[in-house]
Amino acid sequence: MKLSGKAKLSYALGAVGKDMVYMLSASYVLYYFQDLLGVSAIAMGIILMAARVFDAFNDPIMGVIVAKTKTKWGKFRPWLLIGTLTNAVVLFLMFSAPPKMDAGGLVAYAAVTYILWGVTYTMMDIPYWSMIPAFTEGGRERENLTTLARTCAGVGSAIITIVTMILVPRLGAMFGGQGAKGIEIVGFKWFALIVAILFIVFTVLTCINVKERSTAEMETVSVGQMFKTLVQNDQAMTVTIAIVLINCSIYITSLQHCQVTSSDFIFLRLTIPQAPLSTCPHRYVHRYTHTLISAKSLDKTPFSAIL
Prior knowledge:
A two-stranded antiparallel sheet has the order 1-2. Mean pLDDT is 79; it is low at 256-307. Helix 1 (5-36) runs antiparallel to helix 4 (103-130) and helix 2 runs parallel beside helix 4 (103-130). It is built from 10 helices and 2 strands; from the N terminus they run H-H-H-H-H-H-H-H-H-E-E-H. It has 3 domains: 5-214, Growth Hormone, Chain: A; 222-256; 260-307, no CATH class. It has 307 residues and is mainly α.
């Protein structure tokens, strides 16, 4: 029995919701805590590094848990729903930090909420992608569905990239934010709530309209066996190291793309809101309408590096 259009659309909507959440966290958590709330760059760097290290162990553990799950609703959908609900709550809390909390309290708040966000995202993400064979029949159908889901995930990321800094200031002003930073702090709180609600709605539609038809019974290996096999397999270890290095380079370049180091600057009026400048060491770039850039390097600097 071929997969219905309704089931395909529902699964694709799930991808839109999950990547909206992912992009909001990946792109704006540093800006929110560091630029708006004043958490030090060193503290945020340690928190992000600790979260990535923790994920290296969290992901395979979650995979084993999902593989061992047996319920009348299947093994994937329960964790998909549980992970979505908890991740949505944590996302809202992460962007609802009390602004009057002291420095130490903000660091602790950022660490707890960000690591919990990563744990609950994994709880949802692993069953989402792992469930495809459970409700599709052949290789072609699975390939097409995976392509559709990946495309819709890109749509979700694009939505956040485009609308976040358009809606955040408006929401902040609407709900009583005071001052430039105060408006954005309040705006992020309500924007995160909107994204969290959409995330839940899309995932619920996925769980309702996508039915697990079959689950193959396989021997479940332990986490210890996974790491033992990895260490003993030089090819798998090489691929793993390469993936780690690639991800490190992506994080470094994406966070440092906005550095400007020249000493002579002019005003350039921009009409498009700027991307978050969470790690810029100098306040050369003003959000919303004005950007200070080097007059000497203007003709050499890619415009994308300014935005």
